[in-house]
Design brief:
single chain; about 525 residues; alpha/beta; 8-stranded mixed sheet; globular
């Protein structure tokens, strides 16, 4: 039996103990103060201060959660940056095109539904102060040890080591928001491999060139002079992509995500990372003279979990639970939905609802999150080969965004995620949903093979532009309204039909790329 040093002070008791004071933990603490004001909430964070982190880009579910659920609209527009959608650039096979000649997919105006680029260090620091002012006990430099989760409907227990002292804490609910430290998942062996083997390296830079200041009138005019700088910019290549994300006060996050088989392990060193970026002309031009401020990496990104929420009154949220892939920035979306579910369960439990009732609801929430994870992973797993082709990504984006807007975003903005009848309908359709996704992926695989066989994989990676959200404007305007199922189905059928037709056209086309035609004349 392990020996543990005695605690130095009487034990504390709280309704909710949140392990980790990063984004997920502090957002949940704020939500609990707003939705369950009678609950005592404490946050225990090992670090003594907040620093830059990856996961800076948000998309529409997370933004809706911040603005509507957590009442952070004024803060976000005052202290963070608005985001101008997702933007994708495509290069030639020698990675030598200047930025202005790359083909591009992206918006030509700010999207109808807002999203934000987050300086995580600033946001988490500010959230700590907001939470303390709301009555949350946020403890920094507080390491959690000796966690004992009670499975017999009792109180959970752990020890906090802080400033050389130890004290015990008992809590009715324990929520693990410790990020990749994953306190509960490691203790319970919850994490499971996915087969999606990707690696990442990143840095923050100061002095990155402003792509909106490039003196190229036609290039600027094709997006109606909108702010490309505010987008989450993806430079897309077969097997990997490079991100540029603007943060406040002149800092830019730059990173690479790659299939592990596509890059050397040296990319996860600062020198190797710099050298890798310098192999790409457009990226190199933007970074010329920029100052590197920090550096980080992960050897493996994706992992699943056996359980998000337990009827024994513990839960895992954010990266402490599971992670898919950052390509469409889903991380904070997962936090939003997980936190909504956890807050609802805690509210019902502390409000006296019968355990059998809220635990039945918990089972539905668990099933939904497992479905959400599986469906999200399908967007990325074995699809990195397609990223470097403008033609393939045009079709893929229409399909992926149609699924996101209809299947995930619409019920969220309508507050249907806590309606068990809606979740039951989504879960009843999950086999069909996944089958449609796999069928489309099959067509992309055929299109990839056809393009590669014709030497046309990168045929239109130069000089092309498609407005990313053009097909979605009427669809997006309906998202916040209670439209008829027939109208929703009409939107979705049209968008899915468009994406399938695009993929099938790529398979069936016999037209050789212009570059090949010119070379053989």
């Amino acid at each position: 039996m392990p020996h543990h040093r005695a605690v130095d002070a009487p034990e504390d008791s709280v309704d909710v103990a949140i392990l980790g004071g990063g984004l997920a933990g502090n957002l949940l603490a704020r939500q609990l103060r707003l939705e369950v004001p009678s609950a005592t909430v404490a946050v225990y964070e090992r670090a003594e201060s907040r620093g830059w982190k990856v996961g800076e880009a948000t998309v529409e579910i997370a933004a809706n959660y911040f603005v509507r659920r957590l009442h952070l609209a004024n803060y976000l527009y005052e202290r963070q940056l608005p985001k101008n959608g997702l933007r994708f650039f495509f290069d030639d096979e020698s990675r030598s095109l200047p930025l202005t000649e790359m083909s591009e997919l992206g918006p030509d105006a700010l999207p109808l539904w807002p999203s934000f680029q987050l300086d995580r260090a600033r946001l988490e620091t500010d959230l700590i102060e907001m939470n303390r002012s709301m009555g949350v006990d946020v403890e920094l430099g507080a390491a959690v040890r000796d966690l004992v989760l009670d499975e017999a409907d009792g109180l959970h227990h752990f020890v906090v080591e802080q400033a050389g002292s130890r004290r015990g804490v008992r809590a009715r609910w324990v929520v693990d928001a410790s990020g990749r430290a994953s306190i509960i998942a490691r203790q319970r062996s919850l994490h499971v491999p996915t087969g999606h083997d990707t690696t990442a390296a990143w840095a923050r830079f100061r002095g990155v060139a402003d792509m909106d200041a490039i003196d190229a009138p036609a290039w600027r005019a094709r997006v109606r002079h909108t702010a490309r700088f505010l987008s989450t910019v993806h430079f897309c290549y077969a097997g990997y992509w490079i991100w540029f994300i603007p943060l406040a006060e002149g800092v830019t996050s730059v990173g690479v995500v790659a299939e592990r088989s596509r890059v050397s392990d040296s990319v996860r060193t600062e020198a190797g990372f710099r050298a890798f970026l310098a192999e790409h002309r457009a990226v190199r031009d933007l970074l010329e003279g920029a100052e590197l401020l920090d550096f980080g990496s992960y050897k493996q990104l994706a992992y699943g979990t056996k359980r998000f929420f337990s009827p024994a009154r513990w839960a895992t949220v954010g990266d402490a639970a599971a992670f898919t892939d950052p390509f469409y920035s889903p991380g904070s979306d997962f936090i939003a939905v997980e936190n909504d579910f956890v807050a609802d369960l805690i509210r019902r439990d502390l409000g006296g609802e019968a355990p059998a009732s809220w635990r039945e609801r918990l089972d539905t929430y668990e099933a939904f999150m497992q479905h959400r994870f599986e469906a999200t992973l399908l967007l990325y797993e074995n699809q990195y080969d397609y990223l470097g082709s403008y033609d393939l990504m045009r079709a893929k984006l229409v399909f992926d965004l149609a699924g996101y807007y209809n299947h995930w975003l619409r019920p969220y903005v309508l507050d249907d995620y806590r309606d068990l009848s809606v979740l039951d309908r989504i879960l009843a359709d999950r086999t069909q949903t996944l089958e449609v996704m796999r069928t489309f992926r099959g067509w992309l695989e055929k299109a990839h093979a056809a393009l590669t066989g014709r030497g046309a994989y990168a045929a239109h990676n130069r000089g092309e532009f498609t407005v990313e959200f053009a097909e979605f404007v009427p669809f997006a305007r309906d998202l916040g309204a209670r439209i008829s199922p027939e109208r929703a189905a009409e939107h979705t059928t049209w968008l899915f039909g468009t994406s399938f037709a695009m993929a099938k056209d790529l398979v069936r086309s016999t037209r050789r790329p212009e570059s090949v035609e010119r070379a053989t004349r």
